[in-house]
Amino acid sequence: xxxxxxxxxxxxxxxxxxxxxxxxxxxxPAVAQRADSVPARDARKENERQRVAQRYQPNxxxxxxxxxxxxxx
Length: 73
Fold this sequence. Notes:
single chain; mainly alpha
């Protein structure tokens, strides 16, 4: 290949990569959502009493086994 052909081929490749990247960016959702966030439709299912309820039970068997296994006692 001559130097001019190599330059032209390189430009074509870079142009194709750029167009592919632009298409992928356009297809992506406009607002990214954190992986650990709760969607709004699910967050509203708890009532006030459920939101303030105590969820951590320190004397539960699973919690005791975790601390025993990891030597936090």
